[in-house]
Amino acid sequence: MSIRRAVGRHDHRDDVSALEIEDWIIRCSLPKVFGGLILSIALTMPAFGLETFSQEAQAQQRCPTDIVVWLNLPTMIWHYKGQRWYARTQHGAFACEKEAAAGGARGTKNGQ
Fold this sequence. Notes:
Layout: H1 3-6, H2 18-44, H3 56-62, E1 68-72, E2 77-79, E3 92-96, H4 97-102, E4 106-107
Parallel strand pairs: 2-4
Antiparallel strand pairs: 1-2, 1-3
């Protein structure tokens, strides 16, 4: 979309004020910025009702009869102790396996 069309001008003048350019930039970029921000927040936050922990021992206290898993928060994929990515992903936390499953997470498919 052209700047002239975005600001409602339909004549053929070549002068476009700085205010009109600024208005066009704001109207075109704000939805993308806010949309990206909302998406990134949604991907990094665990599902509602899922309690996560920074320490393995904290998770074990929360669920003594369940298996503690490492949950990669953006992907909602969990890893078991001894697997390659257990406690090694950048955005993750410890969680109880049953709670993670109830919150929409799943185990890794390739065993890593």
